[in-house]
Amino acid sequence: MLCLLLTGCAATRNVQQREASTARVWTPAMRSAEAKNTYRVRLRAAGNDLTGICVTKRVGDEWRGSLVNEFGSKAFDFVTTARRGTLLNVFPMMDRWYIRRTVAADLHFLFEVDNAEATFARRVERSERGDTIVAVSGRWRMTATSHDSTVTLVNTRRNIVYELRRMAETDDGSDE
Questions:
Q1: How far is it, in rounded angstroms, from Cα 103 to Cα 170?
Q2: Which of 39, 67, 74, 142 can bridge 135 by disulfide, Cβ–Cβ 3.0-4.6 Å?
Q3: Which CA distances in Å does 24 have to 79, 103, 119, 127?
């Protein structure tokens, strides 16, 4: 019996635990809490691409933003707080309850991932790989790469990819 117990103990491997990262996805170089933030956006879903510009700004405890396509038509406005995300003024082609709910939840995770009071905060696992931060929680996998100021969110359940690339500010305060 003792031999069996010792054999069982010897057969287990030493599994090294990865140290959890506390790195923030949204660094000051990628997002300002005081000024407006402008990003080139590429949203891919079901074989369709939506490209354009996303402008966000922190207002109190909310992130408010708009997504405008390359032709200047607004796709939607959004608001995220620690508790939820909401889409407003949705382009008619996207104005379906299931699209609104999915995109609102995705944007909630995207913009509130560093918020310790967010509803999903305890379930986020972070890791660092060089200059890339990875945050994973349930259906979401988010990567932020500091060298090119790109944040990518993948909704693995719906196979939707959101890619935001920070636009450089010029000396006169306008975007490039």
A1: 31
A2: 142
A3: 21, 22, 17, 10
pTM of structure: 0.83
Cβ count within 10 A of residue 123: 11
Structure tokens at 151: 């944040």
Is residue 77 within a helix (H) or strand (E), and if so which, with residue range?
strand 74-80
User: What is the C-alpha separation between 115 and 70, in angstroms, rounded?
Assistant: 31
Q: For residue 19, how far is the Cα from the chain centroid?
A: 22
Question: Quick one: tokens of 146?
Answer: 């500091």
pLDDT in tens, the chain (176 residues): 434 434 444 444 443 334 567 888 998 889 999 999 999 999 999 888 889 999 999 999 999 999 999 889 999 999 999 999 999 999 998 899 999 999 999 999 999 999 999 999 999 999 998 889 999 999 999 999 988 999 999 999 999 999 999 998 654 555 55
Q: Which of 145, 143, 135, 136 is nearest to 166 (CA)?
A: 145
Assigned token pair, 43: 């949203």
Q: Measuring CA to CA, how many Å separate 42 from each of 4, 5, 16, 19?
A: 58, 56, 37, 32
**Which CATH code is given to the segment(s) 22-166?**
2.50.20
Side chain identity at 116, as an amino acid letter?
A
